[in-house]
């Protein structure tokens, strides 16, 4: 009874708390690109058991559309969501198939809104054919909101390896020798072959669930990023948590490696 009363009081106070945070936010300091590690689905499921979603992944998937709406409000330009890592392929076939099904349905639901341009990034060759075909034919939205990267089969080391391979292949096809390619190779050249080529590097990376590590997420692009670690599991991530992350980012003095 006491816990229920406390929860009701909190629910009444949150709108006021959100208003206070928004009031103090400097939206001129909003990051252009936000990366998010959607962590804690399985732990959330253990604490909130549901027969139709034993792993919590569906509840986490449902949160994505809501989150992108918050990003639209804050005028974030690019969002990268880590939905499936290369490490996830070590899970049982049954669990992996369930994850891929939810990811496919989530991508369909995001595209159906007509609000956002969805781009799949990752080692897509690892995915089953039905999902590869789906991701290769995502519709483009004219004058859409946030540009959304869905990182599927993604690993930071794999991305860097793929970028170097693509660079070397391009140099070979241009008729350049290995020595010429090596001499020309720079950090900027590698950036041109990353999965996120053409997009700004993320200024802010958010990880939910209380874990304080990147686990290989956007290894190259995050060299100068600010990190925000949130205790809430991803299914419980609220607008107020996002606003706190934006506030923390806006209050930091970014040295950009200096």
UniProtKB/TrEMBL annotation:
Record carries keyword Ion transport: no
Pfam families: Prenyltransf
PROSITE patterns: UPP_SYNTHASE
The entry's keywords: Transferase
InterPro entries in UniProt: UPP_synth-like (IPR001441), UPP_synth-like_CS (IPR018520), UPP_synth-like_sf (IPR036424)
One example GO MF annotation: Z-farnesyl diphosphate synthase activity
GO CC field: plasma membrane
This protein's record includes keyword Transferase: yes
GO BP: polyprenol biosynthetic process
Protein name: Unannotated protein
């Amino acid at each position: 009874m006491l816990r229920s009363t406390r929860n009701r009081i909190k629910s009444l106070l949150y709108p006021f708390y959100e208003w206070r945070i928004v009031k103090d936010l400097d939206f001129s300091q909003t990051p252009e690109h936000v990366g998010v590690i959607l962590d804690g689905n399985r732990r959330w499921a253990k604490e909130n058991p549901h027969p139709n979603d034993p792993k919590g992944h569906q509840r986490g998937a449902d949160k994505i559309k809501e989150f992108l709406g918050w990003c639209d409000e804050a005028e974030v330009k690019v969002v990268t969501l880590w939905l499936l890592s290369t490490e996830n392929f070590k899970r049982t076939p049954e669990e992996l198939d369930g994850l891929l099904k939810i990811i496919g349905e989530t991508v369909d639901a995001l595209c159906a809104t007509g609000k956002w341009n969805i781009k799949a990034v990752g080692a897509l060759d690892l995915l089953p054919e039905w999902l590869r075909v789906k991701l290769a034919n995502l519709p483009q939205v004219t004058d859409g909101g946030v540009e959304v990267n869905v990182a599927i089969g993604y690993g930071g080391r794999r991305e860097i390896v793929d970028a170097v391979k693509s660079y070397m292949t391009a140099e070979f096809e241009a008729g350049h020798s290995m020595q010429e390619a090596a001499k020309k190779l720079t950090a900027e050249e590698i950036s041109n072959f990353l999965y996120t080529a053409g997009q700004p590097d993320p200024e802010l990376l958010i990880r939910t669930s209380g874990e304080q590590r990147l686990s290989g997420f956007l290894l190259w692009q995050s060299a100068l990023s600010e990190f925000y670690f949130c205790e809430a599991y991803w299914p419980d991530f609220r607008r107020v948590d996002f606003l706190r992350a934006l506030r923390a980012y806006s209050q930091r003095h970014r040295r950009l490696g200096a």
